[in-house]
What does this fold into?
Amino acid sequence: MSTTRLLGMSRPELERWAEEQGQPAFRGRQLHDWLYARGARSLEAITVLPKAWRQQLAQAGPQDAEGADDWIGRSRGVHRAVAADGTTKLLLATADGHTIETVGIPAEGRLTVCVSSQVGCPMACRFCATGKGGLQRSLAVHEIVDQVLSVREAMEQRPSHVVFMGMGEPLLNIEAVLAAIRCLCSDLGMAQRQITLSTVGVPRTLPRLAELALQKLGRAQFTLAVSLHAPEQRLREDLIPTAHAYPLEALLADCRDYLAITGRRVSFEYILLGGLNDQPRHADGLARLIRGFQSHVNLIPYNPIAEEQFQRPTAAAVQAFRRGLQERGIAVSVRASRGLEADAACGQLRRRLADSLAPAPAAG
Ligand code: SAH
It folds into this structure.
């Protein structure tokens, strides 16, 4: 969407914007406080601003579905699902009527927000629910930052970590993703080290991501996680059709370049699909493939999706795979299965609700 929204702007940018509107610069600082610290949803609600100015802007600017001014660019919550362990999944409606998923995952002393970077996804990984619907569009900066604010509001807790592991492929939306990371750090006070960007790999973009990150953020300290999912090319292509255009050797060479440019070690994700890629020989192949990376591997047991017949790995297979890597000196973690996942793995809540929601989603 082309219309400017204020969410995602830095303090100097908000000052400049206020001045362009004929206001003193300090109005920009007030806006900053209300946007980020107080989570204002419309200019109308920012009562420290002169009423005449607010009214004038409300008439001139974008409006949301309820007729309130939409200068800020907050989305509307249309559904919320809370699991017994507190995991909270939000379905949010964008101004143009798309729905996106975002999840708040509480754990001792932390709150991790799993954000989407696109509406849908074009990568079509076979085990992924999001990929089944294709890509609608990429998200704008304000729509990414809004997800973190929406989880903060819903859970009444400050998010400590953000992972780009919701819907979409972040490397197909690099500019907005980096602008959102800048905003989360500078404007919401998060640490870059608490942010993870997960990618399945897009040819020739990792070195570009590294360079743009240095340019736009000053340093690249967020974690880059690469979804490998297979120790060899043929099996990887079976699971990830787009891998056809991006051989494993090229992907790993790009990971080395990324490390050389940023000084940050890349971590790897590996989905475990029962009987398919979870056998000891796969662990062995994976260890050999990433030897020398001194990397961390995150194992993700498959969450079944409606459209496919893949199997969950057995608990014994997960443990054996983990041990197989550890014995070869690789640091491993296994993603804990969290609430909601049985019926709402990434992309599934949206698809399940798509049938019951009208095209312009009803308030929930
Ligand atoms: N496009 C990015 C980020 C989104 S998905 C990427 O591919 O990395 C975040 C992680 O969840 C990826 O590792 C992805 O492969 C994994 N994932 C997707 N569907 C899954 C499922 N049904 N069960 C378990 N993990 C899944």
About this structure: Residues 355-364 have pLDDT under 50 and may be disordered. The longest strand covers residues 99-107.
